């Protein structure tokens, strides 16, 4: 008898394989008093565990082939950096000595303190780093409890062809298991825009999240079928169902393979409308992936990585080197660098001690351009580095989370001051560097016509725009079902921004997840979007949709879609716009 479980499909694709149920068996951490004479012995036990954790991670990294994507090794390197950070390798030692508590308890107390800091951050990227803290701390705890290395970290081939069933997965879990050949994963928790699911899409792993109590229904090694698009998982499928999904799996693989023919083609609709496809990036190593995907440049280069896992902010020369590597690697294709978009609480990493105020609501607190303007010295360092890098290629500067004209004018004024400094120092830069603003909160979308008169371009950040418009936390399992790119309010704000750009002859791009979802490509084209920026792995599929679209034959139902609140009617209208064109 076939059992069907429904969740949220977050990464497309069909997978057939046997279940591997993943349990994160964590030791029971309890506090006990250490005798005075044994304090240093306990400290040594803790430091030995840190060293063993470091050796385990290095061993895992050494088993990763040199041709693996940069995502695969970056998470391991992040965990190694965390092990070298004083917040994990020194503060627990001080606790052991001062409180005379056991190593496990000292580590747990510090873990809780760090997680609280990350939970208060509004920036989704930084907040998901709490998973990395947990991953590292749990590794040390397992070592202190003399537990074996987790089975999904042992590169012995046992996971090849399996479908992972878990309560939740960290990005590091996903990377490690993908490299061991898993074909899909299904979790009880998670959302469509969590860091893990975004990573799954970039790695091409079919995935379903939000299947409540899934581990109660599945037995280890049981045959499963996963449809990452519909969010359906099948257990005990009969021969007819298996045959049907085998055919769909073959068709999907052929479809993905066929996309390669679009790599060398220009991005242009059938009726001759040219469209610009750019890539989002956050590490210098991403340039290789971006170039191979056929992107026409970088529409969003995140700079937050420079401020992570360090005691002080990066100096100008270090930033210059990173930006120069990227712009030179893009071979004269444009690179749009977003100034640092860090969150509300800066008690860790390169932004530590910038804001010691306890924030009641970090979503409305000191972040992005607000933080930049409150720390002008650090902001000027970054602006100078970006300007100097512009001497080596086409660079644009983009300010995040602009909400008032005063913020935009202050940022532009600081940029002009940096230009004057470089002129006095006889340092080269692009004197005509383009400056843009991100539209990612409702206020900026409503005022897009005003902002368009002060910038060279606008970029719609749909992830935050949707989150702020609908007042939901997109990585909160309890409310992320409300995250809806097709909500009438969201579509109206996007349309308003596009119209503002058209009115003032200012380019408008989109760099959120919505831009890389082929379901929305034709809708966005019909609304007037001509510049898309997305994860490199999404480019070819979006390009296929564009190249097979005749704009003149798209149904003129944009206003109907923006005025529709009924989900069934909205689905029909979207299906109509995504229908065949000639």
TrEMBL record:
Keyword Kinase: yes
Recorded catalytic activity of this chain's protein: L-histidyl-[protein] + phosphoenolpyruvate = N(pros)-phospho-L-histidyl-[protein] + pyruvate
Binding of Mg(2+), residues: 440, 464
SUPFAM superfamilies given in the database record: Enzyme I of the PEP:sugar phosphotransferase system HPr-binding (sub)domain, Phosphoenolpyruvate/pyruvate domain, Phosphohistidine domain
Residue ranges constituting the PEP-utilising enzyme C-terminal domain according to the UniProt record: 261-549
Cofactor(s) the record lists: Mg(2+)
Alphabetized Pfam families for the sequence: PEP-utilisers_N (PF05524), PEP-utilizers (PF00391), PEP-utilizers_C (PF02896)
Subcellular location: Cytoplasm
Keywords attached to this entry: Coiled coil, Cytoplasm, Kinase, Magnesium, Metal-binding, Phosphotransferase system, Pyruvate, Sugar transport, Transferase, Transport
All copies of domain PEP-utilising enzyme mobile, residue ranges: 160-231
Residues bound to phosphoenolpyruvate: 302, 338, 463-464, 474
GO molecular function, one term: kinase activity
Transcription among keywords: no
EC number(s) given by UniProt: 2.7.3.9
GO cellular component terms given for this protein: cytoplasm
GO BP terms, alphabetized: phosphoenolpyruvate-dependent sugar phosphotransferase system
Active site location: 195, 511
Domain Phosphotransferase system enzyme I N-terminal: start-end pairs: 6-129
Recorded superkingdom: Bacteria
Residue ranges of coiled coil: 401-428
Assigned protein family: Belongs to the PEP-utilizing enzyme family.
NCBIfam families, sorted: PTS_I_fam (TIGR01417)
The protein's role, per its UniProt record: General (non sugar-specific) component of the phosphoenolpyruvate-dependent sugar phosphotransferase system (sugar PTS). This major carbohydrate active-transport system catalyzes the phosphorylation of incoming sugar substrates concomitantly with their translocation across the cell membrane. Enzyme I transfers the phosphoryl group from phosphoenolpyruvate (PEP) to the phosphoryl carrier protein (HPr).
Protein name (database record): Phosphoenolpyruvate-protein phosphotransferase
């Amino acid at each position: 008898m076939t059992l069907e479980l429904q969740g949220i499909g977050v990464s497309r694709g069909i997978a057939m394989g046997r279940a591997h149920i993943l349990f994160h068996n964590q030791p029971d951490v309890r506090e006990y008093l250490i005798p005075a004479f044994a304090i240093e012995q306990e400290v040594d036990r803790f430091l030995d565990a840190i060293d063993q954790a470091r050796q385990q991670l290095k061993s895992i990294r050494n088993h990763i082939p040199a041709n693996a994507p940069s995502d695969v090794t970056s998470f391991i390197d992040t965990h190694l950096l965390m092990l070298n950070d004083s917040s994990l390798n020194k503060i627990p030692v001080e606790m052991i000595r001062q409180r005379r508590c056991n190593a496990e308890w000292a580590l747990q107390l510090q873990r809780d303190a760090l997680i609280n800091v990350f939970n208060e951050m509004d920036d989704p990227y930084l907040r998901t780093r709490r998973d990395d803290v947990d991953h590292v701390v749990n590794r040390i705890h397992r070592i202190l409890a003399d537990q074996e290395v987790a089975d999904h970290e042992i590169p012995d081939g046992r996971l090849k062809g399996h479908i992972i069933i878990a309560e939740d997965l960290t990005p590091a879990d996903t990377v490690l298991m993908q490299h061991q050949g898993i074909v899909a994963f299904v979790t009880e928790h998670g959302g469509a825009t969590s860091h893990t699911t975004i990573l799954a899409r970039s790695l091409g792993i079919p995935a379903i999240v939000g299947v409540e109590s899934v581990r109660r229904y599945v037995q280890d090694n049981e045959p499963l079928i996963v449809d990452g698009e519909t969010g359906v998982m099948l257990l005990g499928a009969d021969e007819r169902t298996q045959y049907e999904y085998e055919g769909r799996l073959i068709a999907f693989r052929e479809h993905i393979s066929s996309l390669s023919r679009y790599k060398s083609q220009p991005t242009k609709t059938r009726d001759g409308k040219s469209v610009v496809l750019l890539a989002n990036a956050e590490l210098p190593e991403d340039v290789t992936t971006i170039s191979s995907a056929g992107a026409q440049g970088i529409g969003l280069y995140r700079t937050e990585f420079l401020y992570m896992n360090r005691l002080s902010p990066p100096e100008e020369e270090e930033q210059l080197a990173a930006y120069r590597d990227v712009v030179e690697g893009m071979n004269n294709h444009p690179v749009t660098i977003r100034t640092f978009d860090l969150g509300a609480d800066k008690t860790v990493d390169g932004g530590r001690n910038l804001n010691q105020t306890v924030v009641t609501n970090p979503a409305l607190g000191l972040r992005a351009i607000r933080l930049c303007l409150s720390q002008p010295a650090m902001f000027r360092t970054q602006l100078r580095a970006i300007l100097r890098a512009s001497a080596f290629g086409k660079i644009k500067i983009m300010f995040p989370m602009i909400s008032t004209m005063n913020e935009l004018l202050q940022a532009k004024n600081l940029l002009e001051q940096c230009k004057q400094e470089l002129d006095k120092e006889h340092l080269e830069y692009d004197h005509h560097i383009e400056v843009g603003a991100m539209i990612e909160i409702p206020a900026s979308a409503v005022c897009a016509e005003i902002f368009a008169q002060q910038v060279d371009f606008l970029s719609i950040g749909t992830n935050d725009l949707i989150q702020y418009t609908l007042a939901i936390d997109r990585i909160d399992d309890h409310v992320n079902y409300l995250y809806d790119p097709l909500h009438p309010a969201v579509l109206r704000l996007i349309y308003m921004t596009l119209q503002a750009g058209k009115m003032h002859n200012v380019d408008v791009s989109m760099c959120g997840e919505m831009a890389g979802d082929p379901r929305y490509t034709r809708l966005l084209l019909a609304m007037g979007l001509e510049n898309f920026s997305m994860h490199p792995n999404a480019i070819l599929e979006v390009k296929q949709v564009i190249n097979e679209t005749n704009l003149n034959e798209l149904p003129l139902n944009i206003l109907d879609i923006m005025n529709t609140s009924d989900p069934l009617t909205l689905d029909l209208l979207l299906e109509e716009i995504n229908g065949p064109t000639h």
